[in-house]
Amino acid sequence: MKALVVERSVPRFAAARVASAFGSGRGAGIGPLRLTDRDAPPLPGPGWHRVRPVLSGICGSDLATLDGRSSRYFEDLVSFPFVPGHEVLGVLDEPAAGAGGETLAAGTRVVIEPVLGCAARGIEPPCAACAAGQVGGCRHTAFGHLRPGLQTGYCADTGGGWSEAGLVAHHSQIHPVPGELSDADAVTVEPVACAVHAAMAAAVREGDVVAVLGAGTVGLATTAALAHLGATGRLARPGALLVGARYPVQRQLAEELGATSALPADQLGRAVRRATGSLVVGRAGRLTGGADVVFDCAGNAASLEQSLSLVRPRGQVVLVGMPGRVHVDLAPLWHREVTLTGAYAYGTEQAGRRRAVRSFELAMEVAAALGTGRLVSATYPLDRFEEAIAHAGAAGRRGGVKVAFDLRDAKGRAR
Amino acid sequence: MSPRPGFVLEVDRSTPPTMFWNGEGFVLERLPEGSRVIYAPEPLEPLADPVGAIRHALVHPLGDSEPLPALLRPGMRLTICFDDVSLPLPPMRAPDVRQLVIEQVLDMAAQAGVDDVVLVAALALHRRMTEAELRHALGDRIYEAFAPHGLLTQHDAEDPENLVFLGHTDKGEEVELNKRAATSDLLVYVNINLVAMDGGHKSVATGLASYRSLRHHHNPRTMQHSRSFMDAPSSELHSSNWRMGRLIAEAGVKVFQIETTLNTDTFPSQFAFLQKREWEWNLRDRATFAATAGALERTPARVARQIFHAIRSPHAMASVQAGEVEAVHEVTTANVWRQQGVEVQGQSDIVTMGLPYICPYNVNSIMNPILVACLGLGYFFNMYRGKPLVREGGVAVLRHPTPWAFHPGHHPSYIDFFEQVLTETTDPVDMHKRFEESFATDPWYVHLYRTGHAYHGVHPFYMWYWCAHALQHLGRVIVVGGDPRAVRRLGFSPASTLDDALEMATDVVGRSPTLTHLHAPPLLMADVR
Fold it and tell me: Which ipTM was obtained for this model?
C-alpha cells in the first residue's frame, strides 16, 4: 500500500535545501521524501495496536525536515527510513486499550499522541518525566525496544500517518475521539495539544497582555488554547490577547478563535505598546515595557528577535514554533531579565483546582469548543504529495492554514 | 472695480472641464450637463494700511471694552496668545498677520510700561510649532526678544502645573485653562479667522484648554448636533464654547480679543489659474496648468509635498477688529461671510469635492487618510449655512490620492488609530466609548505631545468626530483615485475615475442624480436656501 517515506540521503536533503530557497515545500519532488509501496510495520510488542490513518496533517516540523532545514540537533533522535505524519486521526483495525485504560472497539476513531516515551519504549521503571506524565520530557527517546525517534512519524519502527497501510501505536498513545468532533477537528488535536501545553507552561496572570507572534497552525492553536482555557477558568484570562499574523485569512481566524486583536506582524509592536502604555526608546522603537508573555509561534531568528522586543522586563517568551540554529542578539534578554521558555509537545497539565489532566484531553475540548477543524484548508491524496507539500509550504500566502493528507476512500470522504 | 461675488455655474455643453484638486496635484474632470459648480467670490480688496487698521482697532474697541492702551499699566501681567500653525492655510507670506498685530500690542505695552509679558501659542492639543514656524508667525524680532528668555511658550495641555481649573458651566462642562493666561491681568488673544468656525470664545476656551475641558465639546454628540460648525446659531460646538467663554469671563479672566480676516487671494501668481474660473483661463493659464499637472504626475510624492508646502499664500488682511469677544466676533463672522459666502438654491443628490494637499493639521506634514476624511467630510462638507449642499442620504465624492502614509513624528497616534481603531469600528460614538480615553491618556502620546512635535493622542478621534455629521447625513462616500486599501479602511468606497464614482453613486441616488461641485480652495461658504 502507498506510503511516503523519508530516507537518509545526503544529496536529496541538500537538493531539498537548495529548492526550499525558492519557497518552503518546493523541493518535495527532489528531496528525501518518496512515494513507495509499504506494509504497516510489525507490532513492536504487547500493548501495541494497528491504527489506519484517516487524515494526517503536514506540520511545520515536517516541512523543515523535507526542506532540509531541520536542526542537526534532531539527527540522533530520529531513525531512517521513517514514514512521516504525527498529526494523525485514524481508526482502530481491532479492539484496543486506550491511554485512559478503557477498551476501544474496532473502528473507533482515535488520535495519536505521538511522543514515544518510556511506556511505548517498554522501559521500566519509567524516567522521572514519564512517571510524572510529562512524556515530552522523556529521557529515553533513543532507547528501549524501539529505534530512536522523538515521535511516531520520526521513528523507523512505528510508521507514521502518511501511509495507507497504517502505523502502530502503543496503547498509551491512543485517545478515542469524542463524537462531537469532526474529522477535521480531530486531525488538529495534536497541534492544539502542543498549544495547550505551551499555554499551561507559561506564567500568564489574570489581565496580562499576551502576544502571539505567528498565526500558522501553531499560532492559531495557541490563540485558541489561551482564549478557551482562560474563558473556562483553567488558565488566567489575559487582559488582551494580541496576535501578529502575516495574512488576512490568519487574522480573521485568530479573531474567530478568541484574539482580542489580530493584526499584521509589523503592527504588533505598536499594538503591544498601546495595550501596555509603554514608552519607546530610540529609532529602533524599543519598548520600555511590553507584553507580559510572548508566544513565539514562528521559531526563527526574526520572530525571536521580535519577541524579545515585545516582552516586558522580567516577562516571558515561550518558544512554541520549532526553532533551528538562529543568530539573535540576546542583550535584551540579559538586560531585561527575560525568561525564555521552550514548549515542546504535551504531557499532563495542572488545570483548575490542581486537577491533573492530559494535554490531549484539554486539546479535544478546545477543538470541540472552537471548531479548530476550520484550520484545515485543503486535503490531498498521497500520490499528490508534491502538490500537498508545496501547498503546505505556501499555505498562508494561498489563503490557507493546515494542509493534510486524506487517506479515506471515496465512501469515507462522503461520510 | 469691486470684486465679483461667488458664482454658481450650471454646466452645459460649452462648459470646459472643471479643475479638481487632487492632493499634491490637480486634474480636469468633465461634469455631467446640468451639474452645478460653486466658485468662491473673488478676493476682497486688502486693507490699504494694515498697521494703521490694527492700531485703529486697538484704540477703538467693539463692545464693552476699554481701548487697549487703557487696559495696560506698569506692573501688570500681560499674556498675548495667538493662533498656531494650523492657520492660515496655506501659510501666508511674511509678514504674518500675527506678527503685525502682536508688534502693535507690544508697542502699546511698552509705552504703558508693561514689562511682564509672555507670549503663548494657543495649541490646544495640536503639535508644538517648530522654531521656524514660530519665527514665520511672529517675525524674527519678536522671536529673538522673547524666546531666548523663556517668554515665548507653547500651551501644554498636559502640564498640570500650568493649568488652572475655573469651574463648571451650567451644563456641567469643566473649564480648565492655561494658568499663565488665565491668571494674567490681561489676556490678549490674536486670531486669524480663516473660516466662520474660528475665533470668538473658541479662541481661548479651546486653544488654551486641556483635554479635561475639550472633551466636553470635541465629541460625537456635539459634532452631530453642529449643523454646521460654520453657522454659529446652529452649532453645538459654538454653544459649548460660548458657555465656557462666559464662565471664563465670570471667573475674572479679562480677555481682549483681536480678530482678523483674510481675503481669498490664496495662491501665488505662478498658480494664478487656481484662482480663476476655468472658462476664463487664458492661454498662459492653460499652459501653466498643463505643465504643472504633467510635471506633478511624474514627481515623487515626497518631492511634490515639499513643493506644495513651500507655497506661501499672498492672502492679505481684509479686516481687523478688537475688544470684547462676542462683539468682535459678530463683526468678524460677518466679514468672513462677506468674503466667502455664496448663495446656492437647494441641495443636490451628489456633492463632489477635489481635496487639496493641505488641511489645518498637516502643515509641513503628510495628509494621511484620516485627515483626508476630515478635510472632506469635516471641513468641506460643513462649509454651509442652512442645509448641506447634498441632501440627506446623498453621496459625497471626494478626489484625493489618499495614500497609506503617515508622518510618524507629527501623527503617531493616528497610525495606531488607523491600525487598531478603524479596523474595529468607524462609528464615532462606538469608538468614543471604547477607545478614546485610552488614547487620550496614553503616556507615550503624552510624552510625544509634550516634548516632540506630535499631535495629542486623542487628536485622530477628534478628526473622526469632525466627520460625524456628514457620516450621519450621507448615504455613501466615494473616494476617486485613492489607495483602495486606505479608502476601505475609512469605510468609504474607492473608485478609479469620476465616471466610475458617479456610476456607483446611482445605486444610492438613482439614475438621474443632481450634482454640485464645491470648487475650493479658494475657500467658500455655501448659503444653501
Answer: 0.81
Please provide the average confidence, as pLDDT, over all residues in chain A: 93
> What CATH number labels A2-182+371-414?
3.90.180.10
Q: What topology is assigned to A193-356 in CATH?
A: Rossmann fold (3.40.50)
pLDDT of residue A10: 86
Q: Are B366 and B305 within 8 A, CB to CB?
A: yes
Q: What is the DSSP letter of B375?
A: I
Helix, strand or coil for residue B78?
strand
Which cell numbers hold the place of B360? 489645518
Q: Determine the distance from the C-alpha atom of residue A112 to the mean position of all C-alpha atoms in its chain, rounded to a whole number.
A: 13
Cβ-contact B185, B72 below 8 angstroms: no
Nine-digit cell string for B238: 459654538
Which value, to the nearest 10 degrees, does the dihedral of the CA atoms of residues A316, A322, A323, A329 take? -20
**Which chain A residues contact residue B423 at CB under 8 A?**
261, 263
Which secondary-structure segment (H or E) carries B34?
none
| A273 → closest Cβ in B423, B424, B444 | B444
**Architecture field, domain B50-262:** 3-Layer(aba) Sandwich (3.40)
Cα atoms in the Cβ-side hemisphere of radius 13 Å centred on B253? 31
Q: Give pLDDT tens digits for B434-468.
A: 999 999 999 999 999 999 999 999 999 999 999 99
Ramachandran assignment for B114, one of left (phi > 0), alpha (psi -120 to 50 degrees), beta (any other):
beta
End-to-end CA distance of chain A: 22
For A181-218, the pLDDT digits (tens) are 999 999 999 999 999 999 999 999 999 999 999 999 99
Name the residue among B420, B423, B443 with its Cβ closest to that of A277.
Answer: B443
Express each pLDDT in B95-117 by its tens digit: 999 999 999 999 999 999 999 99
Residues 6 or more apart in contact with residue A194 via CB below 8 angstroms: A218, A221, A320, A343, A344, A345, A346, A359
Give the pLDDT score at A391. 95
C-alpha cell at B38: 460653486
Class of the CATH-defined domain B7-42+341-528: alpha beta
Burial B105-131 (b: 16+ CB within 10 A, else e): bbebbeebebeebbbbbbbbbbbbbee
Q: What is the pLDDT of residues B112-157, one digit of tens each?
A: 999 999 999 999 999 999 999 999 999 999 999 999 999 999 999 9
Identify all chain A residues contacting B444, using CB atoms and an 8 Å cutoff. Answer: 273, 277-280
Query: What residues of B are in contact with residue A278 (Cβ under 8 Å)?
Result: 444
Question: Integer distance in angstroms from the first to the last C-alpha of chain B?
Answer: 28
